[in-house]
Design brief:
By secondary structure, the protein is of the alpha/beta class. About 20% of the residues lie in helices and about 25% in strands. Bound molecules: citrulline.
């Protein structure tokens, strides 16, 4: 079971209101987003993580979703090339910050695109979503990097959701929280699946951290299902980030 010691987050910028959104559920309130972000950092700290906070960057409305800009493990730091053109460049400040913690970083190069939200680790296997943000070149480059580090890569074509982890989360001990198109998918059949109850699919993006699971606030059925599967849960309100299709995991890089 992994032990996370550190996390990297980035303060939401005022331009968050101009972030990408397909959800059509209104624009985020920046003041509330800042409060929620601070509470999210507190939750990470409560799970034992030391948190590095990068400064807001007004050039990138979506830069609070730092998970999309890198993929990390004990031995590897890969900076991505976001598939959304407006997000390209976010990864530079993240790469610079990671230099303090990793001896070397690798990068996804053009024409490849990859966003960290499309990468889910389960032990030594990394599942990579092929999505509108992660193309076959990006996924292929990343799979090559994984193999060099002794990991296995499994490609998962997506049909409906933005990112792979919009619909599934690995909760350790072979437990997989899953919603929608991922329920019963043969590629994921080796996991013990916890189905996300109808109407709560947003909570499929929950976050295992050192034995506890952060769950978005307001999804009691999913929370109960996770508790029933043996995990202590901690609700965190991320309603303002949800308006931009962002989930709990998107707000941090853990390592
Ligand atoms: C975007 O569309 O890129 C942002 N508004 C949301 C990114 C969410 N990130 C994630 O699911 N990993």
């Amino acid at each position: 079971m992994p032990m996370f010691r550190k996390a990297l987050v980035r303060t939401p910028c005022r331009n968050l209101v101009h972030g990408l959104s397909a959800a059509g559920s209104g624009r985020p309130d920046v003041g509330r987003a800042l409060e929620q972000h601070a509470a999210y950092i507190d939750a990470l700290r409560a799970c034992g993580l030391e948190v590095t906070v990068l400064a807001a960057d007004e050039r990138y409305p979506d830069s609070v979703f730092v998970e999309d800009t890198a993929v990390l493990s004990e031995t590897m730091a890969v900076t991505t090339r976001p598939g959304a053109p407006s997000r390209r460049g976010e990864e530079l400040a993240v790469a610079a910050a990671l230099e303090e913690f990793f001896p070397a970083t690798e990068a996804i190069l053009p024409p490849g695109t990859l966003e960290g939200g499309d990468v889910m680790r389960a032990g030594d296997r990394f599942f990579i979503g092929l999505s509108e943000r992660t193309n076959p070149s990006g996924a292929g480059q990343f799979a090559g990097i994984l193999r060099r580090h002794g990991y296995e890569a499994v490609l998962v074509p997506l049909r409906e959701v933005l990112h792979l982890k919009t619909g599934i989360s690995y909760l350790e001990d072979n437990r997989l929280l899953a919603a929608g198109e991922f329920l019963g998918l043969p590629l994921l059949s080796s996991f013990s699946q916890i189905p996300v109850p109808a109407g709560e699919s947003y909570a499929a993006n929950s976050l295992w951290l050192n034995g506890r699971v952060l769950v978005p606030a307001g999804f009691p059925l999913t929370r109960a299902a996770i508790e029933k599967a043996g995990c202590e849960t901690m609700p965190v309100d991320v309603s303002e980030f949800r308006k931009l299709d962002g989930g709990l995991s998107c707000l941090s890089l853990r390592f």
